[in-house]
Design the sequence.
């Protein structure tokens, strides 16, 4: 069954406005207003909304959101309301490779499947995983903000025939609420990244690095995170955040004087000591901007500070600024370090030619014995096709 869906249009939506508009019972929206505050992650908010939904419809066993990235036409799992036994995590697919979802987007329709066993013969990973976990019916909603696709919303049940007209009317209102929450998350991320990216771009006007360096290393960082996966405690939210925040790693270089930043030859010991302060200065700049822009998401704040401050730490403890060793170095900083080094090696600079990927892989392997995280390096060495695709899509 297909039903039309209307885009939600707003600028910077407030949770309060969304809840008042879309939660049908006063008691429920008052409860949500007290819980859906800016200090909780989108995953927390989605899980809480699921609790509210299950109070009315216990048959709704799962709510999940996939985020759409138009730059590479890819849907990536973002949040799921199930704390354990989640059927899909760290999964991605090109929208153009999933005709059933692409058709919904193009037609701006929702889809009800009340017996998912009709998909049993399909050779798709997501269908198989959903069925393997016992889900038998689904309701799929494309999420639009101001006319643009931002994601897909999935309601699942382990019962056949769980989605009738009474259920769908309520879930449509929940879908609007979750659209506003996702859009609000994107607005906050965009504001934060825009502010810090502006400072970073000032740096890159002075620092002779290639134009697509930040785009590539952000995608290498996400690639490493997703392939390290759940064995490292990484979920979809972590992988998405590291993609968003990896480009901010050198924001502190804006505080480094030109005589050092633009020096064509080797730095003296004193100059290198000052260059190293871009990590601690960057952390100060980030703190100031977070305060000025009233960003309160502690998960993002912690990751950004760790990336900016610790991407030059070394596994053997000989890095800077704090001489952290091994697992004491935050995981996000270890990931970004590998992504940054690889792209620096394979990019042309005024002072060197670009290395081939094979040459860079040899150097990464060498550095993994003392400087770089060996597991992160192993991911890069085993992802040559994905790396080539990123390089082809984001050439200088």
Sequence:
């Amino acid at each position: 069954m297909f039903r039309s869906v209307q885009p939600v249009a707003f600028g910077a939506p407030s949770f309060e406005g969304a809840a008042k508009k879309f939660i049908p019972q006063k008691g429920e929206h008052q409860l949500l207003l007290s819980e859906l505050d800016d200090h909780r992650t989108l995953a927390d908010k989605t899980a809480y909304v699921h609790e509210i939904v299950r109070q009315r419809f216990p048959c709704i066993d799962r709510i999940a959101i996939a985020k759409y990235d138009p730059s590479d036409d890819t849907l990536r799992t973002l949040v799921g309301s199930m704390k354990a036994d989640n059927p899909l995590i760290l999964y991605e697919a090109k929208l153009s490779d999933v005709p059933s979802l692409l058709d919904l987007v193009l037609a701006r329709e929702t889809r009800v499947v009340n017996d998912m066993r009709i998909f049993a013969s399909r050779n798709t990973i997501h269908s198989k995983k959903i069925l393997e976990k016992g889900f038998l019916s689904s309701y799929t909603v494309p999420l639009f903000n101001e006319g643009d696709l931002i994601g897909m919303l999935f309601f699942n049940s382990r019962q056949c025939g769980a989605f009738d007209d009474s259920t769908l009317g309520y879930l449509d209102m929940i879908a609007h609420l979750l659209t506003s929450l996702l859009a609000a998350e994107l607005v906050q991320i965009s504001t934060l990244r825009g502010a810090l990216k502006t400072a970073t771009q000032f740096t890159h006007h002075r620092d002779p690095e290639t134009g697509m360096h930040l785009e590539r290393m952000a995608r290498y960082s996400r690639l490493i995170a997703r392939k390290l996966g759940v064995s490292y405690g990484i979920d979809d939210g972590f992988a998405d955040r590291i993609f968003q925040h990896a480009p901010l790693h050198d924001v502190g270089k804006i505080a480094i004087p030109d005589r050092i930043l633009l020096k064509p030859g080797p730095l003296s010991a004193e100059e290198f000591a000052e260059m190293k302060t871009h990590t601690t200065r960057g952390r100060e700049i980030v703190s100031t901007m977070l305060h000025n822009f009233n960003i309160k998401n502690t998960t993002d704040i912690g990751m950004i500070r760790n990336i900016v401050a610790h991407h030059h730490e070394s596994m053997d403890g000989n890095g800077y600024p704090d001489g952290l060793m091994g697992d004491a170095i935050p995981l996000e900083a270890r990931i970004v370090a590998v992504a940054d080094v690889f792209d620096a090696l394979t990019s042309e600079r005024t002072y060197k030619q670009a290395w081939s990927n094979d040459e860079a892989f040899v150097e990464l392997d060498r550095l993994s014995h003392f400087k770089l995280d060996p597991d992160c390096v192993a991911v890069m060495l085993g992802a040559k096709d994905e790396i080539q695709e990123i390089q082809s899509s984001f050439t200088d």
About this structure: The beta strands are 2-4, 62-69, 74-80, 92-94, 109-113, 137-145, 148-157.
